[in-house]
Amino acid sequence: MRRLATLLAGLLVLTACGGGDPTPQAAPPPTASTAAETAEFNDTDVMFLHMAVPHHRAGLEIVRLAEERDIRPDVKTLASAIKVTQLSEVDSMTQWLADWGQPESAGDTPELHAGHGGDHSTSPEAIAELAATPAADFETAFLNLLIGHQHNAVEIAKLEREGGANPQAKELANRIFESRTAQIAQLLGYLG
């Protein structure tokens, strides 16, 4: 499965390098790591992963809604690319937490988010509202929710870039920052 995800992401990256039409952008999937590569970490690295894993999973819920809807092919292609990338990123992040002997989640109380600018997640209610959106309004609602969601990913990545110690986590944060910033511009263009 990981090989297929890597192949699909590679194909998307290659197609983005060609032609004049803007092609959906997705970050290349992170490479698998071992415990030896990720031995150095600090509280910011753990917090970043504790925030990013559920955020990515919420993003996966959002983009999966686009699979079954009648939307423009380029929007659907971007949603598929996001799905492949985020599945791979979740795999890496949960493996790093396991390698570090850290739980996959820190829980979900408001106090946990007070020290880093609040909760950056997309609420289950917002995702449920999108799921219930009529067909005629779905694409616009999808684009708007995904723009906000990817903006929050950029904010989470900034925290890691500024205070993390683990090289792989910081590299992932840089990729998230760059790719989600590009996706936001692309999504805004789709709203046009």
UniProtKB/TrEMBL annotation:
The keyword Lipid metabolism is annotated on this UniProt entry: no
Domain of life, per lineage: Bacteria
Coiled-coil region: none
Record has Coiled coil as a keyword: no
Domain DUF305: 45-188
One Pfam entry name: DUF305
Listed name of the protein: DUF305 domain-containing protein
